[in-house]
Design a protein that fits this description.
It contains eight helices and no strands. By secondary structure, it is an all-alpha fold. The longest helix is centred in the C-terminal third of the chain and has 25 residues.
Length: about 190
């Protein structure tokens, strides 16, 4: 690790060899596609190489790579949804009415996604952080604690409180109807 920090490429290559399988596995789990996972892994190692001198050593190299890979996958997936295109063959059906392509189901899913996004945004920052790190980036309680500078038990408590708040906000949203928005959770409610 120290040699890689000093700029030794062979040392960095050894770090890559020792973490590649787990890094690729994570990228594949997050993207669901082998080619995209390979792109994510490549981006993650490029970022790691550029930032290796700033690696503080508060966590293991593999944990650090896990965070970088999660961030790269998140960026890749958001780019993919914005640029999604599919080539149609001549014999492709004009309309696909399978359940996952049913317009009404897709609309319901979009509404649900909107309500969840709004509920997460309504959380105080300290609660929103743990939800995003756990549920979107799949970090463990220990990794969340290290990232936020808190204890693992504090991370668990915050996650529990955040999920309670989300449940309450989503229930209020259901009761209010789709046209209205639930009031945001106040910071003093989050403690």
């Amino acid at each position: 690790m120290e040699a890689a920090r000093r700029g030794d490429r062979d040392a960095f290559n050894e770090l890559v060899r020792s973490t590649y399988r787990d890094t690729y596995s994570l990228a594949y789990r997050l993207t669901g596609n082998r080619d995209e996972a390979a792109d994510v892994v490549q981006d993650a190692y490029v970022r790691a190489y550029r930032a290796i001198r700033r690696f503080r050593g508060d966590s293991s190299f593999s944990t650090w790579m896990y965070r970088i890979t999660s961030n790269c996958a998140s960026t890749h997936l958001s780019r993919r949804t914005r640029q999604r295109t599919e080539e149609l063959s001549n014999d492709a059906p004009i309309v696909d009415l399978s359940p996952d392509q049913d317009p009404s189901l897709r609309a319901e899913a979009a509404v649900l996604r909107h309500h969840i996004d709004r509920a997460v945004r309504s959380l105080p920052e300290r609660l929103r952080q743990v939800v995003v790190l756990r549920d979107l980036h799949d970090l463990t309680h220990n990794e969340i604690a290290a990232e936020l500078g808190i204890t693992p038990s504090a991370a668990k408590v915050r996650l529990h409180r955040a999920r309670q708040r989300l449940r309450a906000v989503l229930q209020r949203s259901d009761e209010l109807g789709a046209g209205q928005s639930a009031p945001p959770v106040r910071d003093e409610e989050a403690s």
